[in-house]
Amino acid sequence: MGNLFIFIVLLSFGLCIALPSSHDHHRSVRIVGKLPFYNAFNSTLENAKQNEFPWMVMIYSNKSPIICGGTLLNSHTVLTTAQCVNGKNPNEIFVLPGIWNAAKELTNIFTKRHVVSKIIIHEDFLKTSPENNYAILLLAKPYELKSNKKSICIPQRDNTDYLLEHNAMCVMNGWGKINNKLGYSRILKKVTLPLVHRDNCVIWYYKLSDDAICAGRPGRKFVGQGDNGGPLVCPDPKMPENLMLVGIYSYSHEKAPGVYMKVAPIATWIEDHLWANNLRYSVTCRM
Q: What is the pLDDT of residues 163-215, one digit of tens each?
């Protein structure tokens, strides 16, 4: 409780700042999200509008003042990175959907938080490697999807080459701190980021895992501590009103493009675990 109180105080003062899988004909079909905000993308870090990113959640621990991002995939399920929750018990992790002004809304945190019943870390994740950096959080009770709490879907197949070919611009958002002087943001931030071709990104990172994709502008840092696990959402270049979750933020070096974990390759993995827990959902988009 003490750590949580400290975290809330820090935010208050700001510190400056789906198609069913082949083995399941009962799973609900997902329709890709449709929102108009891509018409107004800005290449600078700025405050998001309230309810602009209804799939975005904040993840925190009651034993340490951590903060991570996550994505609502359905009323029971949140996707984030393994780095965020590895080694933690479900009873110390909470999910906060629909948060915009964290400094204000976290004062009523106990009425907004959702208890996690199960943490599923990708079986091939290793703390010493950035590969397979995925985790699923299953909520103890489903929440009602409404205007400020909506899920988003995952492409049916890896479409990063298609997005790169069409120079797709994607959006990342979170409450993270870009440097230690500024601290966490009070208001949810957003920034438009271009996808970066793999051949250009390895210049910064030497080696990238096959499940990684880069986004950002060299020389400018837009994401940082606290953004881990946050969503990278892209429009379909041919139908820009259709939005999909393409990646989740994993790591970055100073002034280098950020590295995100592709999510299309793990759609079946997610659905298999949902099925194993009697949750008959599809997480893939129907375009």
A: 999 998 999 998 876 666 667 778 898 989 999 999 999 988 888 999 999 99
At residue 238, the pLDDT reads 85
Amino acid identity, position 250: S
**Which of 31, 205, 177 shows the shortest CA–CA distance to 102?**
177
**What is d(CA 208, CA 252) in angstroms, rounded to the nearest whole number?**
12
For residue 34, being part of any structural domain is answered with: no
How many C-beta neighbours within 10 Å does residue 169 have?
Answer: 18
- CA dist., res. 112 & res. 101, Å (int): 13
Residue-wise burial string across 46-57, b where 16 or more C-beta atoms lie within 10 A, e elsewhere = eebeeebbbbbb
Task: Give the ranges where 129-266 is alpha helix by DSSP (H).
Answer: 160-165, 198-205
pLDDT value of position 65 = 62
Which CATH number characterizes residue 179's domain?
2.40.10.10
Over residues 225-248, mean pLDDT: 91
Q: Whole domain around residue 85: which residue ranges?
A: 2-19+54-151+266-276
Distances (CA, A) of 192 to 73, 130, 205: 22, 24, 22
Residue 39 maps to a domain: no
